[in-house]
Amino acid sequence: MEQEEIECCEDFQVHDEVVQAVRGHMPDEGELCDLAELFKVFGDSTRIRILCVLSESELCVCDIAQLLGMTQSAISHQLRILKQFRLIKNRREGKSVFYSLADAHVHRMIGQGLEHIRE
User: What was the pLDDT predicted at 8?
Assistant: First the structure.
């Protein structure tokens, strides 16, 4: 990723109308902290790999471990975090537990992230 220099205004001038309009639409501090924590979850490549495979199909821990070349224990640890942040869900079928993305929002986040980096 290239490092670009950030340009600044030559004269300091606050555009009050715009500042007030934006301030009125800002989420509260608690929501911003929650959003920052959510984005931290996306900061781990193993969790991203899990989300990517789950965006293709519902899978059990054994399947995910096989696909990613990892232990079931390591996958389970990451699934716990993803579930805590409501990014995935699971369902039991007999002795198997299958995982999938929690909803269309998560699927879109993964898709849009990939689209953004491929531009």
Answer: 86
CA distance 37 to 69: 27
Boundaries of every domain in the chain: 28-118
Question: Residue 12 contacts by C-beta under 8 Å, 6 or more apart in sequence?
Answer: none
Predicted local confidence at residue 1, as pLDDT = 64
Where does 28-118 sit in CATH, by number? 1.10.10.10
How many CB atoms within 10 Å of residue 79?
A: 21
Buried b (16+ CB within 10 A) or exposed e, 17-50: eeeeeeeeeeeeeeeeeeeeeeeebeeeeebebb
